[in-house]
Amino acid sequence: MTAARLDGLRSWHADWSGLRVAVLGAGVSGFAAADTLAELGAAVLVIADTVTDERAAMLEVIGARRGTDADLAPFDPELVVVSPGFRHDDPMLVWAASEDVAVWGDVELAWRVRDKVAPAEWICITGTNGKTTTTRLTATMLVAGGVRAAPCGNIGVPVLDAVRDPAGFEVLVVELSSFQLHWLNRTPEDAITPYSSVVLNVADDHLDWHGGPVAYRAAKGRIHTGTRVACVYNLADPVTRELVEEAEVTEGARAIGFGLGVPGPSDLGIVDGILADRAFLDDRRNSALELGTLDDLAASGLAAPHLAADVLAAAALARSYGVTPEAVRAGIRAFRLDDHRIQPVGEIGGAVFVDDSKATNPHAADASLSAYRDVVWIVGGLLKGVDLSPLVERHAGRLRAAVVIGVDRSDVVAAFARHAPGLPLFEVVHGETDDVMAEAVRLAAAAAREGDVVLLAPAAASMDQFRDYAERGARFAGAVRDHAGAAEHQEDADDDAPTGPPAD
Questions:
Q1: How far is CA 368 from CA 206, 263, 345, 364, in A?
Q2: Which domain holds residue 19?
Q3: I want to staple 330 with a disulfide (CB 3.0 to 4.6 A). Which of 88, 144, 279, 415 is the partner?
């Protein structure tokens, strides 16, 4: 009976009353799920190791129970809704599988209740890197074209909050992590059907969570399942094309490529400094449409090659919805990058300090390092099961020095020993300093020369020493400001010091 009931719950207006649902996690996604289900009349048990006082009070207000893993079986849930941070082999999820209890992610729940206000089209975005930038760019281009659009999902605004927004939207641009995709589109019957979708790139990441590269790749590929209009892929990344070719899409969906070279028919690319669309026009074999220029990208801080690729991917998605080339260009010109994404934060001794704390894996750090010539690299943190050796080997020639942070630095130091043995290497030893970033900036400033870039692109997650990548970047920027101020103060003191022989 439960399976039949769940199968019928495909609308906000279905009968959800009394459904026993265990929500795993009380973070942003978990609370949005609990709030949604409580509003629908379900009986909700929220299981979380830690809950802030504010969040606990909010759960009480909406009528959700709080509990621990020991409460799961006695509650006898008919459905488990899992937050993205929970591993698939968590004991509670293993129990759910053994008891044949359905497990949904917050995205599947959002898809089922998306008709509360007016069902928006979904444009879905994933990739190892560039997801948030591309999501924001796509939404900005759509809005510039007069479309009521909003970015949501893994970008920070839960998709459940977006579908319940009383204003309503025509399009939701949904960023999806591999964790969210793991729980999505597992059977054709439960697949969402995006308007358009993209896998920006695929490189090893979160291998500890997924259990290996094959499972990670498969999770990314699920985004294309059921896509109706355009499956967008990266011409420079063969895996993304393979994922399109393997996908079970809606008949008539087109494959659209993007890349930094001259585009072929059905592609977007760059010709003589012009962003060109040869996909969304009638005579695509013989002509192209101009979407903007490299000068437009530079003016918006998007000139780095990997950011230009994100722009082209976003343009493909926006154009698939019918937005004009003029709107795409207006969106580019209106756009500004998020904090902690290739963000210059100061200058010391002629060296520019750049915050790319959002480079939380080797693929992102590779793109960031490739944008500069002479680099003092601040690197390290939680490696998530990936090897930095190929990255160190690839960029050893552009490195002036490296500063290694993180609680466990052994694998990072070993990679430098193998592939850059003569490089000046400094470690910020965990526990020997009260301020990791102050020490990292001090060491980097001492190693840098005029014209160098000191680049925080850790190629690792941050949670071993910081709350998240944003705190890591903010601490870096603050340390740069403090060190620059101290250096300026010292210069002033030196200028004021007496010169010449001492007076008799």
A1: 19, 24, 15, 6
A2: 2-107
A3: 144
Strands 267-271 and 274-277: antiparallel
- Token pair in block for residue 31: 């609370």
pLDDT for residue 44: 98
In the structure encoding, which two tokens stand for residue 342, read together? 């290739």
Together in a domain, 14 and 133: no
7 and 146 share a domain?
no
Say if residues 457 and 359 touch (Cβ distance below 8 Å): yes
Mean pLDDT, residues 419-435 taken together: 89
SS (H, E, C) 209-225: HHCCHHHHHHHHHHHHC
Render the burial of 202-222: b for 16+ CB within 10 Å, e for the rest: bbbbbbebbeebeebbebbbb
Task: Out of 86, 107, 128, pick the residue that ends a domain.
Answer: 107
d(CA 331, CA 495): 49
Q: What angle do CA 362, 27, 211 make, to 5 degrees?
A: 40
Q: Using 50, 70 and 90 to split pLDDT, how confident is the model at 338?
A: confident
User: Which tokens hold the place of 72?
Assistant: 């799961």
In whole angstroms, give the CA distance from residue 159 to residue 119: 13
Same-domain check for residues 401 and 317: no
Residue 154 in 3-state DSSP?
coil
130 in the same domain as 83: no
End-to-end CA distance of the chain: 102
C-alpha distance from residue 49 to each of 25, 46, 86 (Å):
8, 10, 12
pTM across the whole model: 0.78
Would 495 be classed as within a structural domain? no
In a domain, 50, yes or no: yes
Question: Distances from the Cα of 158 to the Cαs of 46, 113, 139, 269, in angstroms?
Answer: 17, 13, 15, 32
User: The tokens 């592609």 sit on which residue?
Assistant: 267
Pick the range with the lowest mean pLDDT from 110-124, 153-167, 183-197.
183-197
Q: Comparing C-alpha atoms, which of 254, 367, 238 is closest to residue 310? A: 367
